[in-house]
Specification:
The protein is mainly alpha-helical. It is 78% helix and 0% strand.
C-alpha cells in the first residue's frame, strides 16, 4: 500500500532535497520518496537561502577557528565553502563560457553546453573567476565582514528564485521548478531571508537589492549571448553575484 503524502512530509523532503542537490552534505532518501511532487520542489527552492546560510556559516566558524593563521586561514575557509557546494556553480561558469565561444564560431551553443567535456577557454575563465571570488571573500574575512559574507551567500541564492520566476528555461527540470514556485513561496523565502539578514547586518537591505539587481543583469546578459537559459546559467548567475557583491561592499559599505 502506497504511503499517503502529507504536506509536512513534502516540506521535510523539500528541505532535504535542497541540501542534497545544492551541497555535498550526505542526505539519504527512501525509494518511495516522491521528489517530483510540486510542494517538494517549491520547498526545495524556498529553502535555498537557508542552504547558503548553513554553508557560509560553517565556513565562517572554520575561519574563526583558523583566524590566527590570517590569510591562509581565510583562503582555507573560502575553499571549504566552495567544496561544500561541490564547485557545481563554478562548473556552470565553464560550461556557459564554452557555449558562448562555440556560438561565436557558428556552433550550436546548446549542444556544446550539454557536452561532458570542457574547453581551454572555459577552464581559464573558471580559474580566473575562482581567484576573484577567493580574493573578495578573503578580504571580507580578514577585515571582519564575516556576517556580510553570510548575507551574500543568502542573497545569491534568494536571487535565483527571482530570476527563475521571471524567465523561461531550456530545461525540463528548471521549468518544472518554475511551475512549482508560486509568489507565495517567494514571499515566504523573502521574509525568512530578510529576518535572518537584518540580524546579520544593518546593511542587509542594500545587499539584498543589489544582489537581486545583479542577478537580473547577469541572467539577461547570459541569455543575450546564448539565446537560451538553463541550469548552468543559474549557477553562473549565483557565482557572478558572489564575485561582484564583495567588491561593492568593499567600495561602498566600508567607506
Amino acid at each position: 500500500m502506497q504511503e499517503k503524502e502529507s504536506p509536512i512530509k513534502n516540506i521535510y523532503l523539500g528541505i532535504k532535497f535542497a541540501f542534497s542537490y545544492f551541497s555535498i552534505i550526505p542526505i539519504k532518501f527512501k525509494d518511495n520518496d516522491n521528489l517530483a511532487h510540486q510542494e517538494v520542489l517549491a520547498t526545495m527552492l524556498t529553502t535555498l537561502p537557508i542552504v547558503g546560510f548553513i554553508l557560509s556559516g560553517m565556513s565562517v566558524v572554520l575561519y574563526l577557528i583558523l583566524e590566527q593563521l590570517s590569510w591562509y586561514g581565510a583562503i582555507f575557509s573560502i575553499i571549504f565553502y566552495m567544496l561544500l557546494y561541490g564547485f557545481i556553480h563554478t562548473e556552470a561558469i565553464i560550461d556557459v563560457v564554452d557555449a558562448t565561444y562555440a556560438k561565436h564560431s557558428g556552433k550550436d551553443a546548446y549542444i556544446i553546453i550539454k557536452e561532458p567535456t570542457v574547453g581551454a577557454i572555459g577552464v581559464l575563465y573558471g580559474i580566473g573567476l575562482v581567484l576573484l571570488k577567493i580574493s573578495g571573500v578573503v578580504y571580507l574575512l580578514l577585515n571582519n565582514y564575516l556576517l556580510e559574507f553570510i548575507a551574500i551567500a543568502i542573497v545569491s541564492r534568494l536571487s535565483l528564485l527571482v530570476v527563475i520566476k521571471m524567465n523561461q528555461f531550456h530545461s525540463g527540470f528548471i521549468q518544472q521548478l518554475k511551475e512549482s514556485l508560486s509568489y507565495k513561496h517567494i514571499t515566504i523565502s523573502m521574509i525568512i531571508t530578510i529576518t535572518i539578514g537584518l540580524f546579520l547586518t544593518p546593511n542587509f537591505i542594500y545587499i539584498l537589492i543589489t544582489g537581486i539587481a545583479l542577478s537580473i543583469f547577469i541572467i539577461q546578459f547570459i541569455k543575450s549571448k546564448l539565446g537560451f537559459l538553463n541550469g548552468d546559467a543559474l549557477g553562473t548567475t549565483l557565482e557572478g553575484v558572489e564575485i561582484l557583491l564583495p567588491l561593492l561592499i568593499v567600495l561602498l559599505i566600508s567607506r
